[in-house]
């Protein structure tokens, strides 16, 4: 049976309760949007496979509870993440201010190599905006992160932001990736040889054409 994926990465969604982490995930994996807010309890995850540069990347995306009371549990998931979304809600100045706290938790608990991007969600709610796009841009630059304004509601920049973080994780794991490419190529070469051998064995002029 063909391999379903070449590499597996873990991504984590962090941010205050209600910024839309679960909705971002549901939109990305199932193309669904729920208007009700049912707070995540602890952590939950969903999977999706993306193909980047010919590599099938399986991503396991962990959705964490934004509520303070679950922080002890959720922090245990930081250290196994290769990529992190820091999410705020563009209609909540408070959720934007808290990004500093989320980022400092990431510095403390996640691996040094972890890749991060900043996401300002609910961009469809322009009339309620409290955080200017330039503020998001500026903060992202301070941290050296990419920045996306998204809407899980209108499906804006969802695929783009998940793909971008996955690309960054792939780049950061380039060494392992090159090893993977070699083994993929070796597998392909072996498969080619096997095909050739099969043709030699079964071809009509196998005695004449075959050198093996
Ligand atoms: N208008 C709008 N509403 C959104 C968007 N994303 C999420 N919401 C709404 O915001 C509320 C909270 O969304 P959730 O995805 O449950 O938030 P969360 O960050 O996972 O919350 P916790 O699990 O408590 O940490 C829900 O009522 C969603 O429908 C969006 O892009 N636009």
TrEMBL record:
EC number: 3.6.5.2
Pfam families per UniProt: Ras
Cellular component terms per the entry's GO annotation: plasma membrane
Record's keyword terms, sorted: Cell membrane, GTP-binding, Hydrolase, Lipoprotein, Magnesium, Membrane, Metal-binding, Methylation, Nucleotide-binding, Prenylation, Protein transport, Transport
Similarity-based family: Belongs to the small GTPase superfamily. Rab family.
Molecular functions per Gene Ontology: G protein activity; GTP binding; metal ion binding
Subunit-level organization: The GTP bound form of RAB15 interacts with REP15. Interacts (GTP-bound form) with MICAL1, MICAL3, MICALCL, EHBP1 and EHBP1L1.
InterPro entries with a match to the protein in the record: P-loop_NTPase, Rab15, Small_GTP-bd, Small_GTPase, Small_GTPase_Rab
Function: The small GTPases Rab are key regulators of intracellular membrane trafficking, from the formation of transport vesicles to their fusion with membranes. Rabs cycle between an inactive GDP-bound form and an active GTP-bound form that is able to recruit to membranes different sets of downstream effectors directly responsible for vesicle formation, movement, tethering and fusion. RAB15 may act in concert with RAB3A in regulating aspects of synaptic vesicle membrane flow within the nerve terminal.
Protein localization: Cell membrane
Classification via Gene3D superfamilies: P-loop containing nucleotide triphosphate hydrolases
Membrane topology per record: Lipid-anchor
Reaction equations catalysed: GTP + H2O = GDP + phosphate + H(+)
SUPFAM superfamilies, per the entry: P-loop containing nucleoside triphosphate hydrolases (SSF52540)
Name of the protein in its database record: Ras-related protein Rab-15
Cofactors demanded by this protein: Mg(2+)
A Gene Ontology biological process term: protein transport
NCBIfam families: small_GTP
Organism: Megalops atlanticus (Tarpon)
The UniProt record lists the keyword Plastid: no
